[in-house]
Every structure is written in C-alpha cells, then in structure tokens.
Amino acid sequence: MALLEIRNVVKQFDDFTAVNNVSLSVEAGEFFTLLGPSGCGKTTLLRMLAGFEQPDSGQILLDGKDMSQVPPEKRPVHTVFQNYALFPHMTVRENVAFPLKMAGWAKDKIDAQVDELLEDVRLTRFGKRYPHEMSGGQRQRVAIARALVDRPRLLLLDEPLSALDAKLREEMQLELINLQKEVGITFVYVTHDQGEALALSHRIAVMSNGQVEQLDIPENIYGNPKNRFVADFIGQCNVLEGTVKAVDGDTMTVDIKGCGEVKTLAVAGAAVGKPGWLALRPEKIKLDKELPDLPDEAYFKGRIHDCLYLGDVTIYIVEVADGVLIETMLPNNIPGVAKFFDDNDEVEVAWRFDAGRFLFE
Amino acid sequence: MAKKQSVWLWVSAISTYLFLYLPLVIVVVFSFNDSKLNAEWVGFTFKWYDQLFHNDKMLTAAGHSLMIAVAASLLSTFFGTLAGVAMHKYKLRILPFLVLTPIAIPELLTGVSLVIFFVMVNQVLGILELGLFTILLSHVAFCIGFVAIVVKARMQGMDDSLVEAARDLGATPFQAFRLVTLPVIRPGIIAGALMAFTLSIDDFVITFFTAGAGASTLPLEIYSMIKIAVTPEVNAVSSLLMLLTLVLIVIASRVSPNSLRADN
Amino acid sequence: MKLQNRLGKYLLSWPPLVYLVLFFLIPTCIMFVAAFRFPGDYGGLAPMYYIEEGRVVWDLTLENFQRIVEEPIYLELFLKSAGYAGLTTLVCILMAYPLAWLIARSQKKHRDLMLLLVILPFWSNFLIRIYAWMIILGPQSAFTKAVNWVWTGMGFEPLQLLFTPFAVIVGMVYVHLPFMVLPLYANLEKHDMSLLAAAQDLGANAWQRFWKITWPLSLPGIFAGSALVFIPALGMFAIPDILGGTDSIMIGNLIKQQILDTRDWPFGAVLSIMLTAGVLGIAALGSLVARGGVKRG
C-alpha cells in the first residue's frame, strides 16, 4: 500500500478550479516532486495535504486513513514553508522544540531530540540564536530541522529554495538529497524550477491547470515527454508541426511541415494521416559545416539565423526551410573559440531517428 | 544654487522646530521662576512644586486621572487588541467603521453625544450618573480605535504563514494564537496600551463634557486654573506631566521602536 | 474547521463591537433624534411623545432646524469657523512643507530623530500647549513687548495679541502642525529622486522642478494632511475658549454653550449635526480628490 494516496481530488476557489481531479500515490521513502508553473495547483494540493485547505471532493489517504476531516495539528505531516515561517520571538532551539512541546514530550526527551536534529542540520552551535541573526541558508536548515524533529510520516516542502541565491541553492539541493536518504522520511516537494525537480526527485508529477500532465521518473519526464506542455515546460525544446506518413514497426515516417519527411520512433496511437508535433531537444541535434546524410538520421541544409552566446554553450537558431527554425546547441569545448558559426553561415543539421518524440497532444 | 536652497530649507525647518519647542521650554522655565507673573525671570525656586504638592484639589484630580488612565488603558487595550486582530483576519464592515470614526470626527461631537446619552440613561434607568465612571467609559470608547490601529499594523507586519506553521507543527488554533500571534504582536499591544494611557490622562474635551459637576481630573483642574487665575503652579504641573509623557515615550520606544510612528 | 473559524470571528469582533455600539453608535443616534425634539422645561429634552386618550402622540419638531435657517448669525458663525480652520490648514501647509521635505531628504539615520522631534510636542498635554501660548502672547511677555515696540515705533497704537483671532490661529496651528508634517513626510519620502534628476536633465530649473514634479506628486500628502488638520480644527472649542476673545468664538464654543450652559440640547444637537455634515462633506471631498489623484497617477 502506498504511503500517500490522492484520489480524484478537486478544489475550487469561487469559479476557479485550482485542483481538477488529481489522483496519484506516493510510496514510503520517496522524494516526490510536484512541478509546474505558478497557478497550476501544486501549492493548493500541498496545502490540502497539510490540512490548510479541504478538498471539495475526492480523498486524501495517509497510511490508508482518510485525512479530510483531520485538522493540520493532528496530521503526522509537516511543512517547510517557502519563507521558512520561523517564529521570530523564539530561539532556534525553541523553534525546533515547538512540535515536541505541542505533542507533550517530557523536557529531557525534548532536549535530547532537539540536540540530535540540530546536529543533523549542522547547527549545534546556533541553538541560542534568534532567526533574524541567521543567514538564509541557516534559517532554511532550522525550518527543516523543526519539521523533521518529531519524525513525521510525510514532509512537505513548498519551494523551500526559492529565496536563496543560485550558488547556495545548488549546495542545499545536495544537502536535501542526503538528508532525505539519511532520515528516510517521504518528501513531497513543490517547485516551479524544472532543474531542481530533475536533480532532486525520484519521481515527478508535472502539473498544469490543476491537472497532472505526466507522472514519471526524471529521465522520462525530460527524455520522453508525454505532450507538448511537458516538452515545452521542461528544458528547451523544438516543437515541429507534422503529420504521420507511414508506420513501420518500431519506426514511422512523419512529414514535417515545410521541411519534408523524417524518420522517428513509432508511438502508441499512431495512424497514417494523424497530425502532431515532433519534440526535439536542442542538444540532441548535430550541427556542422558538413554532415553525412545517413539512413537513420534526419538531415537538412540550412543557414544560421541567430546566435546566442551563453558562455558554456552557444545556441544557434538554424533556418532549415522558409520560416522553419530549429534551435540547436553546441558546447564551447575548444579553447580560444567562442563561436563556431556566424549569422547567415551555410550549415547542415541532423538528428538520429530516436532523438525526438512525436506527440499527438 | 543647491547650497542656497538647502540653507533656506534649514532656516525654515529650524524655525519650525523652535516654534514647536519654545513654548514648552518657556512653561518649564517659568515653573522654576520666583515670581507670580509669567513675565520675566526673577530667581530660581521650587515653591510652585511645593505648593502643588500641598494642593489637595490638584492631588485628588491627579489621582482620579491616574486611576481612569490605568483602567481606560487596560480596557481599551483588551477591546482594541481584539478589534485590531479581527480587522486584520476577517473582512468586516461595521467594526472598522465603528473603530475608526471616533478618531476621525472632532472630539467635541463624541463629547456631546455621550453626555446626552449618559444623562438620558440616568433618567430612564437610574444608572451611569455623570462622574468618574462615565469619564472612563468615554475614554475607552475613543481609545479603542488607537489601540486597534497599532495592533492591526503589527498584525499586517506579521507573516501569516507563522500561524499556519504553528498549526502544521501541532498547535491548536488557540495554542497558535497564544504561543505565536500574541507574542509577535506584543510590542504593538504594549505601544497601544501606552498610547491609550497618554490619551486618557491628557484628554480634556471629552472629559469636560462627560465629567458632570463633581468629578475632576487633572486636565479639568488645569483648565479651571487657566480660566480663573493663572499661577505658576500650572507651569509646575505642566512640567511634571511633560516629564511623565517623556518617560512613557522612552518606554514605548524601548518596547517597540517603530510604534511611535504608527500613530498618525 | 469552518465552525471554529466563525467562532473565532465572533469571539474577536463581538466584544469591541458591542462596546462601540453601546458607547458610540447609540449615543450618536440619540443625538440625531434629539435634534427633532423640544427642549425640556429645565434644560435637556422634553419627552418624545405623550399619551392622549390612550393614543401615542409624537411630539417632534423641525423648529430647531428652522432657527438655523432663519437666523443668519449661526450660518455666519459656521462659515467663520470654516475660515479659521481653512486658514489654520493653509499656515500648516506652509510651515510643514519645507520641514517635511528636509526630513524626507535627510540621511536615514537622522530621519527618525527629526520625526520624533515633530511628534514629541503632540504627546504633551493639549491644555499645556495652549497655555504656553497664553504666556507668550500675554500682555507682559517679552514677545508681545517686542512686537509692540516695533509696532508703536511705526506709529501705530499698541496691539493686544492674547484673546484675539490671531491667538486662536496661532494656537490651532501649533496644536495641529504634526498632523500636516507626518502625511507630507510619508508622501515626500516615497518620491523617486531620479524623477528630479530626469527633469533637470531635460532642462527644468529648480523652480520648475518643484512646481511640475514635486508639488503635483505631493498633493495626496497635502490632502491627507489637510483633512487631518481641517476636521479637528473645525470642531475646536478649547482653543478659542482659552486663547480667543468674545469676537473669536467658533461653532464648537456655541455647541458647548448650548449643551452645558443654556442646556438647550435640541439646538445643540442641530448644531452638532451641522458640524458632522461639514466634517463628512470634507472627508468625502478629500477621498474623492484622493481617488482622482490616484487615477491620474
């Protein structure tokens, strides 16, 4: 039995449907991420798990028990808030001890447990400080220690890294992964940052407009997006309009509008004449002055339309046919060379038949 | 050009400060002046303070003022804190109107309506005869608003997720209020209480209407001294009152450095 | 959860609500009704109705309102009060503007002290502040003597300062000045200084920069301050009572006299209603202008 099961949950605010018939389950020990743009319903879903909102219909089961009538303070679920929500009038120790006091623990047991948690997050020396005397990263760790101190069944994290700067964020990502491994508590993590989701999670649910668009492991979310929204939202992606020409076992031929026929992997539900889009990651596309035209590869001649120098890589927008632009990317891995091509250079692009995915929705 | 401008700005600003402070300084200086007239400096004396401390009427009035101010401050802090929290947490219509109007309209109108009200209630029910108690009731009515504003401002400065965090970590709604909301807004509550105390002990207009014949407070006593016979005793009592206010302000600024600005 | 929420709402809002209904709303309503009643034989109010042949006969009147319309002296007094309040407001603007500007442009660390110095006198007793001006404007004071030395030197009769309209205006400005400085400061402090730099860059001189940029942007602060000064000034009775003479009384003095001295409550109530109407009118005007200002901004 899954630790957490969400069944057909719906939540409306006035005439806006924040969460629209979501069902998913989270296994014990999992690092599970709800990923989506702002307004997609991920935070509302999280707040329902915490108990701050009640679903209009549907069920939330924790260890098989329906949680809908249980108030937040009675749930074995804690939240790490986006702004940490540390109590400003309490020291770090008092903050971390709060859940234990609420649960009525004995004083010596509280002390021992708080010590242990402060050690876990490497804040032993800071127990007597107040939140405003700590840095952003330290406050973050206090918030996590406070939420983990009484070993909840489930830890909810609401964009916990969004207030940190880029460098610290990467550090904290590693720390979160290690901490989760160490304590073995199930994490449900909410973020709009796809990079964070891919780096941290065991599984990701991509949400939009209150619904789950795709639920899968990170590799599949990125490499095998189910629809145009997921392809577009996760990373950079070329989306080329086309129709199916022929299906031939594992592969099929599609006619890309304005370019011509290319070979691609066959997908379920494919039928001749069915329109769709070819989703293609820029880094999977080869780009050079001259490329061989191989049978297993799509091959086009084109010219450089635009270049974007990003430092580690350069993005080249290639016009392969009138009005059809393909984004490609080359790492700047040759010392002393900043750019391989300039605007209007004649180039050739190619990609293997299994580099892209043909999507019907 | 810019230099000249700022010189003029400074001159006008300093004259405004002088305009604000010179009168108060004069009152204090003349309270030590050994002359019955507030005209020119004759010599140093404490005799006006001495006379003041032997003036039974004045002392009684001061006692009344203090009692009323303490009680009004406690009561209006209770009501005002509830109102401030409620106004922040819920979308209310009537309460904000009732809380803010007594502050916005001239005190005179509050005084007039209250004296008519108290006398009528007294005629019909035989309770609430004009006196110290009606003064207290009136003071609470106009102090609630000031406390509510300060407390509400403090609530607005408080992160809403703190209460949610407390609930999330196992606190009941009541525990969350007691352990998180109340301590966080405490500086606002204390500032509000001090403000109510000062407003009550200083109030003249509403007190003047609702006091009736017998009751006297310090401002009423000062008023009759000013109207009938000005003696430097008024200067002495004024100086002491200023000292008291100053002490309260120092306390307030210690408790919550930003509270002093929240009162406009 | 929902029930708990509603319970919390009632527990929080009902105690202050009940108190203010009892000691603010009901008294105000009674005052309004009193305006339509006859004065009692010994002051106060006559009964609202009497019972004749077992039927209730209401004993209400519009006489009190007629008196205001028929005798121009009351309307004149009202206008005079508005004039005093208006003059007070104007002087407050003139005095507060440079100060507020200076505070807003000072270094952050000095600002709090400068503001505190503006507010501090406001916290001392109201009567004491008025009394201080009795000393300063009194006939024997150094200030009066200096003024009269200049005045008689120019060949005029010596002046009396205390118990004149001048003293009343000085007192009212003194008491209300902080209420003008604070909102003006709050407004000026938010001004984006780069606007002035931009205007200068585009060729505006200091005077043009003030009139075309700073002044229009500070109007919301001016309106807020004006409302905070004008409204209490309009209903003032203590300052004219102490610093003014018989020729410088205001509507507040008349109301006080009707309620406490002659005890003609119905007429006092009518005058109070007039004052309330004036105050509400100013407040409505203020919020209207403020809203217009926001739209333009």
From TrEMBL, chain A:
<keyword id="KW-0067">ATP-binding</keyword>
<comment type="similarity">
    <text>Belongs to the ABC transporter superfamily. Spermidine/putrescine importer (TC 3.A.1.11.1) family.</text>
</comment>
<keyword id="KW-1278">Translocase</keyword>
<dbReference type="InterPro" id="IPR013611">
    <property type="entry name" value="Transp-assoc_OB_typ2"/>
</dbReference>
<dbReference type="GO" id="GO:0005524">
    <property type="term" value="F:ATP binding"/>
</dbReference>
<dbReference type="GO" id="GO:0043190">
    <property type="term" value="C:ATP-binding cassette (ABC) transporter complex"/>
</dbReference>
<dbReference type="InterPro" id="IPR003593">
    <property type="entry name" value="AAA+_ATPase"/>
</dbReference>
<dbReference type="Pfam" id="PF00005">
    <property type="entry name" value="ABC_tran"/>
</dbReference>
<dbReference type="InterPro" id="IPR050093">
    <property type="entry name" value="ABC_SmlMolc_Importer"/>
</dbReference>
<dbReference type="InterPro" id="IPR017879">
    <property type="entry name" value="PotA_ATP-bd"/>
</dbReference>
<dbReference type="InterPro" id="IPR005893">
    <property type="entry name" value="PotA-like"/>
</dbReference>
<comment type="subunit">
    <text>The complex is composed of two ATP-binding proteins (PotA), two transmembrane proteins (PotB and PotC) and a solute-binding protein (PotD).</text>
</comment>
<dbReference type="InterPro" id="IPR003439">
    <property type="entry name" value="ABC_transporter-like_ATP-bd"/>
</dbReference>
<dbReference type="InterPro" id="IPR017871">
    <property type="entry name" value="ABC_transporter-like_CS"/>
</dbReference>
<comment type="function">
    <text>Part of the ABC transporter complex PotABCD involved in spermidine/putrescine import. Responsible for energy coupling to the transport system.</text>
</comment>
<dbReference type="GO" id="GO:0016887">
    <property type="term" value="F:ATP hydrolysis activity"/>
</dbReference>
<keyword id="KW-1003">Cell membrane</keyword>
<keyword id="KW-0472">Membrane</keyword>
<dbReference type="InterPro" id="IPR008995">
    <property type="entry name" value="Mo/tungstate-bd_C_term_dom"/>
</dbReference>
<dbReference type="GO" id="GO:0015594">
    <property type="term" value="F:ABC-type putrescine transporter activity"/>
</dbReference>
<keyword id="KW-0547">Nucleotide-binding</keyword>
<keyword id="KW-0813">Transport</keyword>
Automatic annotation (TrEMBL), chain C:
<dbReference type="InterPro" id="IPR035906">
    <property type="entry name" value="MetI-like_sf"/>
</dbReference>
<feature type="transmembrane region" description="Helical">
    <location>
        <begin position="82"/>
        <end position="103"/>
    </location>
</feature>
<protein>
    <submittedName>
        <fullName>ABC transporter permease subunit</fullName>
    </submittedName>
</protein>
<feature type="transmembrane region" description="Helical">
    <location>
        <begin position="115"/>
        <end position="139"/>
    </location>
</feature>
<feature type="transmembrane region" description="Helical">
    <location>
        <begin position="217"/>
        <end position="239"/>
    </location>
</feature>
<comment type="similarity">
    <text>Belongs to the binding-protein-dependent transport system permease family. CysTW subfamily.</text>
</comment>
<dbReference type="Pfam" id="PF00528">
    <property type="entry name" value="BPD_transp_1"/>
</dbReference>
<dbReference type="GO" id="GO:0055085">
    <property type="term" value="P:transmembrane transport"/>
</dbReference>
<keyword id="KW-0812">Transmembrane</keyword>
<keyword id="KW-1003">Cell membrane</keyword>
<feature type="transmembrane region" description="Helical">
    <location>
        <begin position="267"/>
        <end position="290"/>
    </location>
</feature>
<keyword id="KW-0472">Membrane</keyword>
<feature type="transmembrane region" description="Helical">
    <location>
        <begin position="159"/>
        <end position="186"/>
    </location>
</feature>
<feature type="transmembrane region" description="Helical">
    <location>
        <begin position="12"/>
        <end position="38"/>
    </location>
</feature>
<keyword id="KW-1133">Transmembrane helix</keyword>
<keyword id="KW-0813">Transport</keyword>
<dbReference type="InterPro" id="IPR000515">
    <property type="entry name" value="MetI-like"/>
</dbReference>
<feature type="domain" description="ABC transmembrane type-1">
    <location>
        <begin position="78"/>
        <end position="286"/>
    </location>
</feature>
<dbReference type="GO" id="GO:0005886">
    <property type="term" value="C:plasma membrane"/>
</dbReference>
